[in-house]
Specification:
The complex is a heterodimer. Chain A is of the alpha/beta class. In chain A, 41% of the residues lie in helices and 15% in strands. Chain A is built from 6 helices and 6 strands; from the N terminus they run βαββαβαβαβαα. Chain A has a 6-stranded parallel sheet with strand order 3-2-1-4-5-6, with helices on both faces. Chain B has helices spanning 16-23, 40-45, 62-79, 90-101, 120-128, and strands at 7-12, 32-37, 52-53, 83-88, 105-109, 131-134, 146-147. Chain B is α/β, with parallel strands linked by helices. The chains are: A alpha/beta, B alpha/beta. The interface between A and B is large, with 38 and 42 residues.
């Protein structure tokens, strides 16, 4: 199953609409969490918000995640070892108050299991492809261990 | 006699800020830890009992911000943490401020989402944090924020 999620705070109809447009051409079923969006998908299953309690099981069932470039979803995809395709929100299209999601994908592009789609065509191609999951040799684990060790040391010295 | 455990209040908004806090959760092993967030369901999702709920707020609503600040202050007074730590955003900053005003140690870890510059909360946090961190090496400065790693 392909899981599309746009977060709960802001609508992202452009992304939902894009996937809905070619949902019938995909080989896997799609579930879209549309949040505050007003566009009603025609060709895929959708839900307004996934309850926090159900979120893990929906994530576990997904083979690939499509998402706005929200860090929470990126971390969750990593936690479940799922490939994630990011579509950054753009301030010029009224999708966020600034372009920090464009900056975020600029830094994350090319990391294991993370794919950035700048066009609908990119997105469709990724969804027809067999994407690699983040591997266990993910370099970001080094950074996380370093941060945790540093904080532990700081707290021990307080 | 056993030594008293360090008491830590770890607070953040829901969504990405919370996932980041959870990604560094093992840093609090051995501490007496109290978590606070703005979405009640997130506590259950991570099997956290006795977690606290903060009213959500942002720079867009002054009323909610005032409510959130008093709530943060009440939490710090009641739970008496030795250290207050946050990954953001505004509700976490208010917890830090309450910690600072009551003489606690304070730690701010700016969100990994802030790639080009610190968030507004992150910049303000620099004035009140005992330890002020960014998760991007290129945003670190000699006087802070410092870089010590990143959750992503």
């Amino acid at each position: 199953m392909i899981l599309v999620t746009v977060g709960t705070q802001l609508p992202f109809d452009r992304l939902v609409k894009a996937v809905d447009t070619f949902a019938n051409d995909l080989t896997r079923p799609v579930l879209a969490q549309i949040g505050k969006g007003t566009y009603t998908p025609q060709n895929m299953k959708w839900i307004k918000n996934i309850e926090p309690a159900d979120f893990d099981s929906v994530f576990r069932d997904a083979t690939v995640i499509v998402s706005h470039a929200g860090i929470g979803t990126v971390l969750t995809a990593k936690r479940f070892g799922k490939p994630i395709i990011l579509v950054p929100r753009q301030a010029s299209l009224g999708e966020h108050r600034n372009d920090h999601q464009l900056a975020t994908v600029g830094q994350l592009a090319g990391r294991p299991g993370i794919y950035v789609a700048h066009t609908d065509e990119d997105l469709k191609n990724y969804l027809l492809d067999d994407l690699d999951s983040p591997s266990h040799e993910d370099p970001s684990e080094v950074g996380r261990t370093s941060l945790v060790t540093y904080l532990k040391g700081y707290l021990a010295a307080v | 006699m056993t030594e008293k455990k360090l008491k830590v209040l770890a607070a953040s908004s829901g969504g990405g800020h919370w996932e980041q806090l959870m990604a560094m959760r093992s840093a609090f092993e051995g501490c007496d830890i109290v978590f606070a967030t703005t979405i009640p369901g997130l506590l259950a999702k991570y099997d956290i009992r006795d977690g606290l709920v903060l009213p959500d707020c942002s720079r867009d609503s002054i009323t909610m911000s005032i409510r959130c600040f008093f709530s943060a202050f009440a939490i710090v007074i009641k739970h008496k943490p030795d250290v207050v730590i946050s990954t953001g955003a505004a509700p976490g900053l208010f917890c830090l401020l309450a910690g600072k005003l009551t003489g606690k140690r304070t730690i701010w870890i700016d969100s990994v989402a802030n790639v080009e510059k610190l968030s507004l909360s992150g910049k303000l946090a620099g004035r009140i944090a005992s330890l002020w961190l960014t998760q991007w090496q290129h945003l670190s400065r000699p006087d802070g924020p410092h870089y010590a790693g990143a959750v992503l």
